[in-house]
Amino acid sequence: MPSANQIYDYIVVGAGPAGSVLANRLSADPKHNVLLLEAGGQDNYPWIHIPVGYLYCIGNPRTDWCFKTEAQPGLQGRSLSYPRGKVLGGSSSINGMIYMRGQAGDYDRWAAMGNKGWAWQDVLPLFKRSEKHYAGNSALHGAEGEWRVEQQRYSWTILDAFRDAAAQNGIASVNDFNGGDNQGCGYFQVNQRAGVRWNASKAFIRPVLKRPNLTVLTGVQVDKVLLENHRATQVKARWQGADHTFSARREIILSAGSIGSPGILQRSGIGPRPLLENLGITVQHELPGVGGNLQDHLQLRLIFKLSNARTLNQVANSLWGKVGMGLRYAYDRSGPLAMAPSQLGAFVKSDPDQPSANLQYHVQPLSLERFGEPLHTFPAFTASVCNLRPKSRGRVDIRSANPDDVPLIDPNYLSHPDDLKVAADAIRLTRRIVASSALHTFSPEEYLPGAALQTEQELHEAAAKIGTTIFHPVGTCRMGQDAEAVVDAELRVHGIAGLRVADASIMPTIVSGNTCSPTLMIGEKAAQLILATPSNALEIDAGISRTAAVPVA
């Protein structure tokens, strides 16, 4: 536990994928005293670790912050649930466990935007360093890291048939989506260990908890970063019912995610001047881009009723089915309880003019109205498809200076006309795949959005009706050198010494796939950058006053 007036070398705020890696790597040198602060609790809820428990963690206040978006004009005025992990491991504790890097072009674009050191050839070694891949070391994969990557332990006939139907539409079957070009259809690789979820906490925090130079605190609600002469020196937070101030000798790193990190900056007086002044927050450093550039993957969940098919809907709605699932999982950690919610994936172009695959499918042998609600009673599958490179941009802002107030989240979905076109094309492509002969045996019938919707305008309205987040918010503290950028290529906050941001919020543009492992890579990159910085460029002058510090109990 922290001692009174203790000063740490590094304070990491947020124990999600990036923060977990940072705490591990920075504390590997016993000379570095590291404090990791997590606002959520311990990751000891049983459903976190049983893979299908994803369905019971999202929307559960024990494991999810249960945020809501603002009403979205592009989604017929609907407000969406916006899940974010509320335990050690962050969203890696409640996500779909899919191991995905995105495309090489994603990172090459970051580098082309002026972010030196972020091209695919630069980040591939970082992905490999963290990775413990089931197939061993290769040119593309690593096997000596902590981030376990395994094949799935269960399959469904209906998913195999969808893969065959995709092949009938020119979407080739592939075994690995992570070589830099993820076009094709196949089963996702997953972050599991023998049928159990493998989150960032298990990978990077638990193995090093006994390090005497690492302190991990949960239930710490960080309010703001305190500055002295434009240098970050302390973190003000609420812990165990009392206010505390934690001091850093070298650096403070915000890894609180695309929702949390911009909020901490704004409450610290770092952000858009009009917002801060309107909320009565003293502007410490004007950075207009803080909270802007919000990007997310909007998924269109097309649901098809089936005949002659076995899906999780029937199994989970049957007493004997539930008993059978439990017994099989207890026996060898396989069966439906071991499955990632989305098992089969596909990456494809929405039209031939796209430079690379711009659609991603998550195909599920189940259906439900929305996450957190019961599965349908009829047999069905869901073909969820998202635009990988949306042009719509939104914002995340604080509502007040009170850290307990929920953030204002406005993704601004489908506000760009190109996104509407891609959505309509995605629905038409999905219908072509499902109409293929490989699926005829199951007589698929479109339940949502409904086969009667055919015109471009009707498909736009369908997308607005069924679109929902796939939980990939990024970009709200984006990396770059222009006036709207928040951090530089070394993740240092522009204009503030001793302060970095390292999480999905720094992405200039969203990656072409699931965001968990790219976020983990960002943590690995941040650690590399920090440890390569000479200590005399980091340490705060010992003569700086710390009279504002509150003793830690």
Describe this structure in words.
It contains 14 helices and 24 strands. The chain has helices at residues 17-26, 46-49, 54-57, 104-112, 120-130, 157-168, 200-205, 257-267, 273-278, 312-316, 319-332, 417-434, 456-466, 516-531, and strands spanning 7-13, 34-38, 67-68, 81-82, 131-133, 147-149, 184-187, 192-193, 196-197, 214-218, 220-227, 232-239, 242-254, 270-271, 285-286, 298-305, 344-348, 359-364, 380-387, 395-397, 408-410, 445-448, 467-469, 499-501. The strands form seven sheets. Strands 1, 2, 10, 11, 12, 13 and 24 form a seven-stranded mixed sheet that branches. Strands 7, 16, 17, 18, 19, 22 and 23 form a seven-stranded antiparallel sheet that branches. Helix 1 packs parallel to helix 14 (516-531) and helix 5 (120-130) packs across helix 14 (516-531).
